[in-house]
Amino acid sequence: MIFSPQSKVWIYQSNRKFSAQETASIQETLNNFVAQWTAHGHQLKAKAEIFHDYFIVLTVDQEVANATGCSIDASVRVIKDIETKFNLDLFDRFNMAYLIDGEVNVVTKEDFETLISIKKIGLDTIVFNNLVQTLEEFGQKWQVPLKDSWHKNVFAEQLAVG
Hints:
There is one protein chain. By secondary structure, the chain is α+β, with helices and mostly antiparallel strands. The chain has six helices and nine strands; from the N terminus they run βαββββαββαβαβαα. The chain has helices at 20-36, 69-85, 109-117, 135-141, 151-154, 156-160, and strands spanning 8-13, 38-39, 42-43, 46-51, 55-60, 95-100, 103-108, 126-128, 143-145. Strands 7-6-8-9 form a four-stranded antiparallel β-sheet. The protein has a three-stranded antiparallel β-sheet with strand order 1-5-4. The radius of gyration is 17 Å and the shape is globular.
């Protein structure tokens, strides 16, 4: 399926890496969900993908049908069910994800601050901007150097030290 660049995207980041078995099971749950995901009785053109064994990304092409409050609530319920079933935290926006040597790492905001302070993370470190809204932004602005993300403003004090 081809999706419009303006398709709506929701990103859920796990606090830990999914095992291979968890990834397969979560993907099956997501596939079953998007196959029947509707808004006011209209089938949504949607997909659910797992990236890096940490991120669940839901995409809805709103040129076909718009996601509504009830349909968005349904997606949140399925994500919460996954969270409970696999003992994950998929809603903590204070967990920071970054790439080092091609590996995704997820740490608390406090640990992220410490890693900046001890120079393990810098302005060129790739971070994940889970605030992107569209498929186009996802492709262009999801994985970006810290210097080009909202992280730079939040952690300006730590980045300025030394």
